[in-house]
Design brief:
This protein is mainly alpha-helical and about 190 residues long. It has 2 domains: about 40 residues, no CATH class; about 100 residues, no CATH class. The protein has 6 helices and 2 strands; from the N terminus they run E-E-H-H-H-H-H-H. The termini are far apart.
Length: about 190
């Protein structure tokens, strides 16, 4: 515990004694105002993170803006930043799976084609366009996971259509460029 004297309300002569507790009142004289400070521990910071995430975000943002890096909850901040990156990658994968599933349905169920399917393709391609515009490095992740996402989309298409999974090719009949091309529809 640390006591910090903020300021005095009256000047004392140079030969004055330091303030003492008044024996009857058990308090410092009025002319000294002091404040007791508890050092902030990382446990306190972590408790805020667990208790009120939004407030933790606001306080962390303010500390960063003020350059008060020594007061940051580094452990949780690093975790949140890593989580954001993982979330962006998962969003790309999920969006790609929806596109590939709809392309499969469009190709292998021509009698079921609808404006809803075309809208879904356009909407999800637009999501990827925005993701790549804001974070161009995500396009590399898109390319790296294309084959894996096609495999998942193939399973989803079989489950949604009721068609045997063998109906859909093991390897993607679509290129990554076709998946992103808002004008491409398989025939």
């Amino acid at each position: 515990m640390k006591v910090v004297v903020l300021f005095t309300l009256a000047h004392q002569a140079a030969d004055s004694k330091p303030p003492m507790l008044d024996s009857k009142q058990r308090r410092l004289p009025v002319w000294v105002i002091a404040m007791t400070l508890q050092p902030e521990t990382s446990a306190t910071k972590a408790q805020l993170y667990d208790r009120d995430f939004y407030l933790w975000l606001q306080e962390t943002t303010q500390l960063l803006r003020n350059g008060e890096f020594d007061k940051l909850d580094i452990e949780n901040l690093v975790e949140e930043i890593e989580s954001m990156g993982r979330g962006d990658k998962h969003a790309v994968e999920s969006t790609l799976e929806v596109i590939l599933m709809h392309l499969l349905k469009y190709k292998y169920q021509p009698d079921q084609r609808s404006n809803s399917w075309r809208f879904t393709l356009l909407e999800h391609r637009n999501r990827l366009f925005k993701a790549f515009r804001d974070s161009p490095s995500l396009k590399a992740h898109f390319a790296q996971t294309f084959t894996e996402n096609y495999r998942q989309a193939r399973k989803l298409a079989a489950a949604e259509t009721g068609l045997p999974i063998a109906t859909f090719p093991t390897d993607s009949p679509f290129t990554p460029e076709q998946a992103l091309d808002e004008d491409y529809l398989p025939e």
